[in-house]
């Protein structure tokens, strides 16, 4: 569904992406994992066409993405931090997106709108919303048009545990509908129950892309966090970061 | 694209800055017409507003708006919309709101008190300068890396067109005072939209008599059909070229 | 009714000593030429209604030629219509039209040569190159005539009222338009020009040269190609005139060149390119004038000295005073300048801070006129402000030490 060939991007001195090759298919939930600055967001933005790669190419449904923006109608994107026009009301925002996407009301997925109870704040201007509520709006927007591909950048960050659960359930539901879902998250425990594949990036390089079953088998670890930690320990790479991951993971458990 | 402009426009119109700007223009123009004993003196004072304040506010407002809607632009980029479409609808929204503020603030008093050729020339120049400096500000914003640089370069550009350029002209005229410079000054006036607007209005005020040979030449030129086409054409170039440049830069930009 | 009036008029005139000759369709004398021929000194020739085309008619007797119901003397575009010489001639109430044009002779509708005590009044003259041409005459009166020219180009057109080498002339209440110069004076002394309106002339409304001890009062000069020129003369009094809209690349309210010992008082200068341009002039008193909306109110060249400017009001002029030198020997005091922003601590109505009426930009423009393309730009106003704070270029002694805070009552 998405094919990435020899993708390279440099920001001045920083090698953001170095020769990435990957293939993502329907029904997969890909977890993008890596330390800060490893190129996760750059990769996502490249797929969305926000970052123009220096070389290489991305195909969505076998079509290269440069030029025609229409491929994005298949993609739902939830950004890390959603900023919206200050004076726009929530209802307006959904209306506007509907206008832009030109999707009939019957085809809309209002599941999250209902579950997050966003309809009740439809007449509130965006600037009055808290960060968490904005995240809910972003999430609802990403699923609103029932896209074949979902790209979620730190989806659960800033959400309360209840909303976080709702979102996770929604992701699982969409996974069952045979959609392609790309997730980045620091909270590996969140990904545990969702993910089918793990793509691990470091310093702009793809270290591996494996399905979770293989990963568990290779490492003998059931939990994703530990599995990755094991791999990294074995590879003796960036051991410091692994400790960081584990620390995060542990706080995730105590939550 | 127009749909998007509608939302941008809607967002800006509700913005207090643009309301304050139009009220400021309205109060200043209205009181000028009330206070000055004759309308042509009021037009002269308005001339300064049109030549200095309108470009300044247009530049600053556009730049700040651009950076404030950066995330909105990002959101739009994730939708099936082309980049030039997004930037052009931003431009249309900003330009339309600034234009309406100008035509409300200055246009209404002028039409009420000084509805003649000079008044219309003033409105034409003001409208054109609004569009030109919105265009230039878009270029500065797209080219600059961050908000501070963006606003800084917008201010510098304004300072250049409003003041420094005329200083350079003075310098040139004195350095080459032995040569016939009249025709050359026509070219010089085309290289600065503020100067072009000023000369265009001044000739409608019939100041040309003061300018001796230069005035006669200008009067001949700007009074003729060619001169009007020249003025409108150069103004259009000043609107289109920076915008075109901004569009090209925006298309290649990583967001 | 008309006929009765004429008869009554004739009776009245007949009762006076002199004879009256009636010329017209209904009279035994059909042509003006015949009428003049039979008239004797002191007689009155009445020209009744009708159009007369008789070529050039010469009057050299002391007769009164009076038109009744505006008879028309038509020059047929070929001839000078009337030529007067001698003394005590009156021409009154006649409509002159289509006087001829010649590039060799100054053909006129009415020409006066070598004459004294001539009165030309209440006539209408149109389509003439020269309308009234007077040379070498004394005690001439030209009064209440309405003169309109052809608006042709400068060299094809003549002057409205042209005086050359005259004394004690009185030009009064005339309206002149569409000629080369509205009123032209050369070598005319001790004469008066008053209550005339001279407008829309191709060159000057009033052109005045080598004419001493003259007065002009209550005239209006409007919309003339080059305004009014007063040159090479002494002791001229110019009072209560209006100089209005003399607007063009080289138009002046008054152009003064080599004038001395004169007065310019109580005039109004409104919307002229240059209200008063002075060169080579000395001992002129310019007082109680009103300058409004002119490009330059005063251009005082460095060749002028010992002039005084006081109790004038300057309002809304682009430049108040311009000069081309750095030294000035003229005095300014008690003028009202609308651009003055000083204060008056002792409440005597005069500002405590001197006013320098020459702006920095005025000096710049004087040196390099092309810089006028920068007029009303932000940079120019900054330049002027800076020069006010730290004077350097503007002439230091061109200053009004006692500027008025409120406009002078005029």
UniProtKB/TrEMBL annotation, chain A:
Residues 2-228 form the ABC transporter domain. SUPFAM superfamilies: P-loop containing nucleoside triphosphate hydrolases. It comes from the Bacteria. GO terms for molecular function: ATP binding; ATP hydrolysis activity. InterPro entries: AAA+_ATPase, ABC_transporter-like_ATP-bd, ABC_Transporter_VariousFunc, P-loop_NTPase. Keywords: ATP-binding, Nucleotide-binding, Transport. Gene3D superfamilies: P-loop containing nucleotide triphosphate hydrolases (3.40.50.300). The keyword ATP-binding applies. PANTHER family: ABC TRANSPORTER ATP-BINDING PROTEIN ALBC-RELATED (PTHR42939). This is ABC transporter ATP-binding protein. It comes from Niastella caeni.
TrEMBL record, chain B:
The chain crosses the membrane at residues 12-33, 45-67, 88-115, 121-142, 154-176, 228-247. Keywords: Membrane, Transmembrane, Transmembrane helix. It holds the Pfam family ABC2_membrane_2. GO terms for cellular component: plasma membrane. GO terms for molecular function: ABC-type transporter activity. This is ABC transporter permease. It comes from Niastella caeni.
Automatic annotation (TrEMBL), chain C:
It comes from the Bacteria. InterPro entries: NosD_copper_fam, NosD_dom, Para_beta_helix_rpt-2, PbH1, Pectin_lyas_fold, Pectin_lyase_fold/virulence, SCF-Subunits/Alg-Epimerases. Pathway: Protein modification; protein ubiquitination. Residues 1-18 form the signal peptide. Residues 154-342 form the Periplasmic copper-binding protein NosD beta helix domain. Pfam families: NosD. Keywords: Repeat, Signal, Ubl conjugation pathway. Gene3D superfamilies: Single-stranded right-handed beta-helix, Pectin lyase-like (2.160.20.10). This is Nitrous oxide reductase family maturation protein NosD. It comes from Niastella caeni. The gene is nosD.
